[in-house]
């Protein structure tokens, strides 16, 4: 996953938003199973989540931790987590939770897909949810981060706010969810201004703040006045270059109160709550869960007084587009094609 930046550490001081999507090669050889595990109703639900980065990153990892913790409280389940788990340690960590009786385990990283499938074979009565995985099994489901829906709105805001006709987007690597984010950002921008120039940069790493800042500064020097921060360092560059920036996954205005116009936010609580209830009720299936704007999981953070920087008519168009996406009147294109 989106973050961001992975899955996100989009502008945070820890992992990238896309840290959740760290290994594009993971699970690609596995094909989804048409059948789901014979899950019996569970009275003593125990939920665990395995995270690739710190729970204080204000990004992908914190979103996972906060969502799982809140959902566990809502359904009366025991809760545990492991943070800063490397790909090499993922299988061991996931197995440890299963051995301890945690009957719903979330592997919150694209790169944990193979590890999850391996452990799931050993614990057929345990339900596993692998974030943005491409393969499932009888007792392994998956979920994604459809923040590309919010990226469309971000593109509209950026194109409607810049006076130079140029905007930017900075991220880590060309993995599916980030490519979807980029294409949606550009599509939203083109809706507002068909002639807008959208600069994009992939720095080749999910977490390299100096490279992220360098790439963002280069875009600012090329005329970009509004950036989308899909990796750490972008917000710092916006502050240094006196540009506006749109954060990712959590409200990142505190990182740059005069520069972070808004943020595309992700709330995992509704998704994890519904999965947990399904496990409790014995109705869980290994389907792919995708909770976006229609489900209230993807949104835009407040402008924190910076709304005056956006023309009123642009804000109105963004609000209407948000409503249209929520109602189903408009579907954001989902394009994961690679770019040059």
Sum this structure up briefly:
With about 350 residues, the chain is of the alpha/beta class. About 35% of the residues lie in helices and about 15% in strands.
Description:
The chain is α/β, with parallel strands linked by helices. Helix content is 35%, strand content 17%. It contains nine helices and twelve strands. It has helices at 60-75, 87-99, 113-122, 148-161, 176-192, 209-221, 234-240, 269-281, 312-327, and strands at 46-50, 78-82, 104-107, 127-131, 140-143, 166-171, 197-202, 226-229, 244-249, 260-266, 288-289, 298-300. Strands 2-1-3-4-5-11 form a six-stranded parallel sheet, with helices on both faces. α4 (148-161) runs parallel beside α5. The relative contact order is 0.18.
Which strand order do you get reading across the main beta sheet?
A: 2-1-3-4-5-11
Decide which structural class fits the backbone: alpha/beta
Give me the number of helical elements: 9
Tell me the distance between the termini: 21 Å
Number of strands: 12
Q: What are the low-pLDDT stretches, counting only 5+ consecutive residues below 50?
A: 1-35
Please estimate the helix content.
Answer: 25-40%
The SSE string, one letter per element, is EHEHEHEEHEHEHEHEEHEEH
Instruction: Name the beta content range.
Output: 15-25%
Task: Report on the biggest sheet.
Answer: 6 strands, parallel
Mean pLDDT: 89
Shape: elongated
